[in-house]
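Service request form, structural biology core

Requester: graduate student, group of Dr. S.
Request type: structure prediction, single chain
Budget code: on file
Notes: please return the result as structure tokens.

Sequence provided:
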Amino acid sequence: MSFSNLLQRAFSTSTQTSGATAAITSLSTSLFKERNLRNLVDKFKKSSEVYRFRTKTGIYNDTVRRLASAKQYKWIEEILEDQKKYIENSKEGFAVRLISLYGKSGMFENAQKVFDELPQRNCQRTVLSFNALLAACVNSKKFDMIDGFFRELPETLSIEPDLVSYNTLLKAFCEMGSFDSAITLLDGLEKKGLEPDLISFNTLFHGLYGNGQFSDGEKIWRLMEKKNVVPEIRTYNAKLLGLASEKRTREAVDLIEEMRGKGIEPDVFSYNLVIESFIKEENLEGAKQWYSEIRKNDIAPNRSTYVKLVPFVCEKGDLDFAFDLCEEVFKRRFLLDAALLQRVVDELLKVSKIKEAESLVEHGKTNSYRRYRLKLPSVL
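Core staff response, request fulfilled:
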């Protein structure tokens, strides 16, 4: 069915729930399959004339993400500016979506313009659009502006910042490396009648443990426990990152056991961090053991697993294992730097493992997802 027929069907079934749902699904599929981005923009604008289409947040997110990936910011502006005419007849949430999409695309000036124009479009600005503006600041890396907005806008708009507002400010401080300000903000939430939640703590842990502030991370961890906030997998992974950075491998292994004891199954990121800790300690056997733990627990390694392991294993001279890892890379269709794969080939040749080296070169030539021009020098 042509796109124009799909659109006509969507309009004609707008009052029939089942028919309208099928029509919008068909429109969404058509947009998803459209490879020509100019055509995508035109189809999106036409589709958005249908009310039910405009309720599908996922379609908006996917379309803007595709355009941003292609750096077609003028077309993002074209489709989102076209949406402004629908704000007046929509709830504030629709405007929030536009602000958020501009923010995620790094187009903060456009996001702010949507926010500033809301009164002209008979849309009251509440803490929802205020929070969207703050998030757009963070996503667009406009950290220098967020503090000013936080100080001025609540009074101007007669709104009270909520926990989402403070969590966004907390994230901004962490992104800027202003950890003292972030901790002070967290400590001051109670005075504002608010209690930090798991998002608050995860944001701080990611910033502290990930930036060499391990002791401060531990203080906040104790505060989290005192407030009976229950950690989840991302919380533990942040702490594992801190432990790996500090080369506290034994504690990282113990933390994995603690997670399991509390019914939280480690994921591939957890295992990668333990492997990274063993690598930092130059412990080959430990790194190999925890790679096998990934497989034993039916968890699929990811690209990062091999990026960490392959050069380390080469450095330690375990070329049989390095070869096995590269075989897995091709099997799982991961993209690794050609220089890393070439290093394995070269090291294999140095110890006369010619068959294995030839096998990797052949994989590089014949795999179905990316061609690697790996070389077999006659003499090294």
